[in-house]
Structures are given as C-alpha cells and as structure tokens.
Specification:
By secondary structure, the chain is an all-alpha fold. The protein is 74% helix and 0% strand. The protein contains six helices and no strands.
Length: 132
C-alpha cells in the first residue's frame, strides 16, 4: 500500500475524548432502559404523563438497550448512533406533543454523534468539517 493510501491513526487524545463523550449517553440510556424493564412506579407515572400505556415501557426498554448496546460496540457504533437518533427523535416528539421542553433529549442526540465523530477517524473522513 502506498503512503497516500494508508490511513492515519487517530490521535490518542481524540480517541479518549470520543470515548468519554460516548460513555455519557451509554450510561444514561442504559439506566433509562433498565428502569423501563423494571417497570417501576416512576416509569408508570412517566409513561402516563407522556400519554402512553405503561405496558409499552418494557418494549421501549428493550429497544433502548439494544440500540445502546449497538452504539457501545465499535464495529456497530454507527448503526447504533443512527438507531439512537431515531429513538431520541421519538422522545423529542413525545415531549413536543405535550408542550414540554426537549433540550435534554436533543443534547443526548448531539453527544451521541460528537462521541462517535471524535473516536472514529473514518466518520470524520466521511463527514469532514470544513472552514469557510
């Protein structure tokens, strides 16, 4: 392989910044998914507040944990980020529908992509930030 074709490695600081940023939504979404599986009183109240039947919590928890696991595995992280973007879009829509703020859900989505952007050189090559 010629020098021009060899990929440059990711700087360690960039990789670790991405890992830390990625860990934040993984921890938050794992906790949220586990709480949905436990179907606690808070989850039942939250589902009712958003206008959803409590029986949906377990299914949502499974989806949330599955997408989060895919995001946490480096080989499937981009797929996980795409799926979590859709999941967070649904969360945003739920809050918009009842007139509540959705900043936290939007920030989680942004941090999901920032984390993977910083830790994966291939994604930065696919979506480069350009100076104007």
């Amino acid at each position: 392989m010629s020098d021009a074709m060899q990929p440059t490695s990711n700087p360690k600081w960039m990789t670790w910044t991405g890992r830390v940023l990625s860990a934040l939504p993984v921890l938050m979404l794992t906790m949220s998914g586990v709480m949905k599986l436990m179907n606690s009183e808070e989850v039942v109240k939250g589902m009712a507040h958003l206008g959803y039947p409590p029986k949906l919590a377990i299914g949502l928890g499974i989806v949330e944990l599955t997408c989060t696991l895919l995001y946490a595995i480096p080989q499937t992280a981009v797929l996980g980020a795409i799926l979590l973007t859709g999941y967070m879009g649904g969360a945003i829509a739920s809050h918009v529908r009842i007139g509540e703020p959705f900043v936290v859900q939007a920030l989680i989505g942004v941090v999901i992509w920032l984390g993977i952007y910083w830790r994966d050189r291939r994604l930065r090559e696919l979506l480069p930030l350009r100076k104007i």
